Amino acid sequence: MAVGESSAQNYELRDPDVRLMLAVRDDDAAAFEELMLRYQSRLVTVLEHLVGNRDTAEDVAQEVFLRVYRSRKKYVPGSKFSTWLFTIANNAASNARRSRARRKERNLTPAVDDTGAWGGASLEQMAQEKSAFMPTRRLDKTEMRDVVRQAMETLNERQRLAVLLCKFENMSYLEIAETMQMSPQAIKSLLSRARENLRVALEPYLEHGSTPAKTAAVTDEDDEAAGVDA
Amino acid sequence: MSVPSEADRTEMLERLTAYLDGELDAADASEVERRLSAEPTWAAELQRLQRAWDLLDRLPRAEVGANFTHTTVEMIAVEAEAELVAVQHRPARRRGLDWVLLLGGAVAAAGAGFIVIDKLRPPRDEELFRALPVLRNLDLYARTETGESAEFVKLLRDERPLSGPKKP
Predict the structure, then answer these.
(1) Domain with A91 in it: what CATH number?
(2) Number of structural domains in chain A
(3) How far does A8 lie from chain B, in Å, by closest CA?
(4) I need a labelling partner for B66 at 20 to 30 A (CA). Which of A51, A59, A229, B28 fits?
(5) Are A158 and A220 in contact (CB under 8 A)?
């Protein structure tokens, strides 16, 4: 994408991370380290939810930083630095998921957890187990965290990424749209459906503490059927 | 409140989400607020959406350790070293390339010069062809008596077989 000179200058003025990346372009090693320190934890947080486990998330994050370094000489500020970085991260995560899917196909293990995340029981199973034995007990902090994780797993990949960028990165719809290469209107629909799905998955825990909701992971095809197109 | 159609519900949910995310302009936000105060069902829906959203704060944020930073920096250092080696080897390769280019240029210049000279030079065969009548009778001319020489020289001057076409 061609980036206008005034647009590039605009981002350079407004975004300190863009200025750091321009220093990286000029082979400033300290600037690169500073960018790494600013983004490594944020990147791993988002990637952990996208690829399903911490080790893979760290591997993908390192791949992202390597890609940033390799492309430094061609860098022209066409968006906020974080938008550019998470676009790279999204592509790297997609590649990692595809590789994992190919490995799964080769292994043909029947008991593979399809979500690939944090293993164990589904949201529904977890809630049923807890409600069967302790129907009125409030979930403790760890249990609640696991419930929320499982609720996130009910979202498809696009909804999950949009939620993570909105919630954790405080990105605007426009920035999420740039990162995910979709239109802002599509992001609005995507986030609306994601919030609704989360509400359905988590409502039993909000209202009653233990009664499970019937939830099933949605797919990208569900979004397409609902008219959420890029 | 009448039950909204699926399309109306979807549209209103999108507006509520955008309202919660601060993505509506002032006019649209006011319109949503008006509907929320007039329709308690939507107000309750908004609260449920927000409570579910707030639960995402329970998700842990990753804190990567010094080991991650260290190994990433090492990876970048290896990459940088590979780049440096490539740059250092570039002049030697460049010199070799320069010699090849120079040689190629010399061959091309020589070829071009040959073609130009060949075009400018009068064709040798044509010159011989013009002199052919004289060459055929060269032995005869050599045996000519002295008294006939003057006439022969005159003939040569008029014919000028070696000097191109005869002037009118």
Answers:
(1) 1.10.1740.10
(2) 2
(3) 25
(4) A51
(5) yes
Asked if B23 lies within 8 A of A70 by C-beta distance, the reply is no
Q: Are A71 and A136 within one domain? A: no
- Kindly state whether residues A9 and A61 are assigned to the same domain: yes
Contact (Cβ atoms closer than 8 angstroms) between residue A189 and residue B14 = yes
Residue A199: domain span: 123-225
- Interface confidence (ipTM) of the complex: 0.77
Q: What percent of chain A clears pLDDT 70, i.e. is strictly above it?
A: 74
**Residue-wise DSSP of A153-200:** HTS-HHHHHHHHHHHTS---HHHHHHHHTS-HHHHHHHHHHHHHHHHH
Contact call for B61 and A41, based on CB within 8 A: yes
Residues A82 and A23 in one domain: yes
- A127 and A221 in a common domain: yes
Quick check: is A117 in a domain?
no
Q: Smallest Cβ distance to A40: which of B21, B59, B68? A: B68
Size of interface A-B (CB pairs under 8 A): 107
Gap from A26 CA to chain B (nearest CA, Å): 13
pLDDT in tens, B26-57: 999 999 999 999 999 999 999 999 999 999 99
**Closest partner residue to A36 among B14, B48, B72, by Cβ?**
B72
Pair (A97, A161) in one structural domain: no
pLDDT band at residue A133 using 50, 70 and 90 as cut-offs: very low
Q: Are residues A86 and A142 in the same domain?
A: no
Mean pLDDT is highest, among A92-106, A112-126, B83-97, B139-153, for A92-106
A99 and A56 co-located in one domain: yes
The answer to whether B56 and A148 have CB atoms below 8 angstroms apart is yes
Least CB–CB distance from A145: residue in B59, B64, B69: B59
Q: What angle do CA A63, A66, A69 make, to 5 degrees?
A: 155
